[in-house]
Amino acid sequence: MQKRNSLFSFFSNLKALNFQPSAFSIKKAFPLIAFGLLLLAFGSCSRNPDMQEPGDAKLQGEWRQDSIPGQKSLVTYSLYDIKFSCDSFLLKISTVSKVNYGADTCMSKGHWDEFVRGTYSQRQDTLHIKGQFCNADGSYKNEQGCFRFGDYEEYFKVTYPADSAIRLLSTSNVIPINAHLIKRTSCIPKPL
To answer: Chain-wide mean pLDDT for the chain?
Structure first.
């Protein structure tokens, strides 16, 4: 009831100020408001592309991390396999742990794999990957499965120590991913 009273008092105050909107001023304001709403609607939308983007030519292919420094002394560590295809990626995270975190049906005696698929973008030396956890076949992973599910997003600083080597330094992890090229591919954009 207070809102009704406050609106009533607002309009009463406008009358007290002798503010009487004329039909002419409302007719002038309507096209301006409609035009402003159209600009807002079209300015905030963008058309999705029909084809995959080409991505970075240096990244195209399959990369594998075989080991990390001091892995025998670590309690838990992960090794990465990454496949870049045009602007997309498929990431396999192979984790080894000496600690039992949960049911052995998921942990498989301290060795398990997780998969992520999505798209990436690169600006100068920063690689941004964004995707979803998925099953080994690339299908959607639901919440009842083992390990992580949902969104995955990471930023890496990229360097190329050699033509067939890549170093990815994560912004959230101190252990770099030093991977070597297994297979070079080229981007053939596919329709989306």
So the answer is: 82
